[in-house]
Write a structure and sequence with these properties.
By secondary structure, the chain is α/β, with parallel strands linked by helices. It has a domain of about 200 residues: Rossmann fold, CATH 3.40.50. The protein contains 22 helices and 17 strands. The strands form four sheets. It has a seven-stranded mixed sheet with strand order 2-1-3-4-5-6-7, sandwiched between helices. Strands 8-11-12-13-14-15 form a six-stranded parallel sheet. Helix 10 runs parallel beside helix 11 and helix 15 packs parallel to helix 19. The radius of gyration is 23 Å and the shape is globular. It starts with a strand and ends in an 8-residue tail after the last helix.
């Protein structure tokens, strides 16, 4: 029986036909929970669904990327034929989805030619004019907050009275003319942006489809949940597509905007009632000032939450701020991203800001005297002024951190890729930063994703390293860091051996792909064994992906609370209703 709904939200894989292609996607997703198809959908899906459902609309989330990963037999057109939406929404938030997003839109139009398709997300906002050149795309909602504009778009579709008054909307009329409405919906508070886990239970039962609502492959084993405390940014990192300057151009957000501490804590509590998994809060609460930071920590503590709460800091936090968390939350963690051990590289990347290694080491030593579950330190490959020798020296610096003798302190290194962020300082003015940008338009990025290896997918190289040298540096750094983790006890010999084998096999496969490309060109996809190899050797290459996850209890979910949420669905009450 067809499923009727107001809005069908579709999350695409990075490359639509990845199951038929032989592409070595590389370790570009090793530092995120998802696979190289980036099947983790944006948190905006959840806030959008909650906002609309609370106002009487029906929304369905369908993680097509995950469904396609889990089953080679999953048929996207057949799935879409069973749906009856008034509006189809597709996210193009992160650029690695630019191929899959357009292809999913094309299929959706073939199946439902009379149902409009709307795109949203940061990349959609940046490329909104180009998107409307594709006949499959009818609308683009721009900005970082589209909950109310989506509601108004649905109303306008039902009335059939035109779209000139829908805020943040870019659209194409019946004559093919493109229009750009101003971004006038820019909320100064984010208390509407709840992530309700009971809504996922409701959707899974309503449509008898658990797989489509899961955030990423393996989430049931590691139910890490993100709660977004703010949007916008006060920092000017040159590589970031959400830096302060970028936001002023793409979303017109001139300064960060926050959720109230009480609302943030309520959302954390709602998640903790159902799951024992870690709760991640990206964006650095200290951007709101010390008083806001302390109020947020106090509010979470007052809820009695025992989940591990992960804080992200863009700058070195004061030690007493960490102590403030430690005194109030039973389980907590934090992460830093110094990007490089080399101050010249770091300060350039952070727009002239940054911090000294000595200050970071002093902070880490003090933090380890507290009770954090873990401290994650992230480094990157492919930055301004960064040479091959500099990358290897960063790995040596990681070993220096390991020598502190506390395995709660983790260090990771990965390539910046596959693309420069549209709108970032380096994307907009690459030559000034020593970069060569190899793809500019949306279509150029889409075609780049079809290259046979991640070396050719990368849309940049620098005056310090070519794409080939970036790839060599990545694998060499991964080997050295893996060996250090083995020696310092971060990885068991068995797991370290597995990572070493994957790095070796990825190198071998890279050589094999080079040869096949020269000899066979476009016939790569015909080799079934090769297709399996390239996907397998693009996973947990520079590290074991399990290092990203917290140690989970035997039962990651609270069964009683999950059953209560399911009963509310059966009894006809929607999430958010009393």
């Amino acid at each position: 029986m067809p499923h009727a709904m107001d809005l069908l939200l579709l999350h695409p894989p990075s490359v639509y036909d990845f199951r038929k292609r032989a592409t070595l996607y590389g370790p570009v997703s090793d530092m995120v929970p998802s696979s190289v198809m980036f099947e983790i959908y944006p948190i905006g899906f959840l806030t959008l669904a909650n906002y609309l459902e609370a106002r009487g609309r029906r929304v369905r989330i369908a993680n097509l990327a995950l469904r396609m990963i889990q089953s080679r037999r999953f048929d996207v057109p057949r799935f879409l034929r069973d749906q009856r939406p008034k509006l189809i929404g597709i996210d193009l938030h992160w650029m690695p989805h630019c191929h899959g997003a357009i292809e999913i839109a094309r299929i959706a139009k073939q199946v439902h030619p009379d149902v409009p398709v709307v795109f949203g997300g940061l990349s959609s906002s940046y490329f909104h004019k180009e998107l409307l050149a594709y006949p499959e795309v009818d609308f683009v909602l721009r900005g970082d907050s589209t909950e109310e504009p989506t509601m108004q778009l649905l109303d306008a579709i039902e009335r059939g009275e035109g779209f000139g008054d829908v805020p943040n909307l870019s659209w194409r009329d019946a004559d093919g003319e493109r229009h750009t409405n101003a971004i006038t919906y820019l909320p100064s508070c984010l208390d509407h942006a709840d992530v309700r886990p009971d809504l996922l239970i409701d959707m899974a039962l309503r449509y008898r489809d658990l797989a489509s609502v899961l955030p990423f492959d393996g989430w049931l084993r590691n139910p890490t949940t993100m709660v977004l405390p703010l949007k916008g940014c006060a920092f000017e990192c040159t590589t970031c597509g959400s830096s302060a300057t970028t936001c002023t151009h793409v979303t017109t957000r001139k300064k960060p905007v926050f959720r109230s501490p009480e609302n943030l804590a309520d959302n954390v509590e709602a998640i903790a009632k159902l799951s024992r998994g870690a709760i991640v809060m990206p964006g650095d609460l200290l951007q709101g000032g010390r008083a806001y930071f302390e109020d947020a920590v106090d509010a979470i503590a007052a809820r009695g939450v025992t989940n591990d709460v992960m804080f992200e800091f863009f700058d070195l936090p004061p030690v007493d701020a960490l102590a403030y968390i430690d005194e109030r939350l039973p389980t907590w963690s934090f992460e830093l991203s110094p990007e490089s051990h080399d101050p010249k590289v770091r300060f350039a990347m952070e727009g002239g800001g940054g911090y000294a290694n000595e200050a970071m080491e002093a902070l880490l030593a003090s933090a380890l005297e507290l009770r954090p579950t873990r401290i994650d330190v992230f480094f990157m490959i492919g930055l301004q002024y960064q040479t091959y020798a500099s990358v290897m020296a960063t790995v040596d610096y990681c070993e220096r951190l390991f020598a502190l003798g506390d395995r709660r302190l983790q260090a990771f290194i990965s390539p910046m890729g596959p693309f420069l962020d549209p709108g970032s300082h380096i994307f907009e003015n690459p030559e000034a930063y020593g970069f060569t940008r190899l793809a500019t338009t949306l279509e150029e990025h889409r075609q780049q994703l079809l290259a046979p290896s991640w070396e050719e997918v990368l849309n940049y190289e620098t005056q310090w390293m070519t794409r080939r040298e970036l790839v060599d540096a990545t694998y060499d750094a991964a080997e050295r860091l893996n060996d250090a983790k083995r020696r310092y006890g971060y990885l068991s010999p068995r797991r370290a051996d597995a990572v070493a084998r994957r790095i070796h096999d990825a190198r071998t496969l890279r050589t094999r792909l080079d040869a096949v490309t020269r000899e066979e060109g476009a016939s790569l996809g015909e080799d079934e064994a090769l297709r399996g190899d390239v996907f397998r050797f693009s996973h947990s290459t520079v590290s074991d992906k399990r290092e990203l996850f917290w140690r989970q209890p035997a039962f990651a979910f609270k069964t009683g609370a999950v059953l209560q949420a399911a009963w509310r669905n059966v009894s006809g009450r929607r999430p958010g209703q009393a």
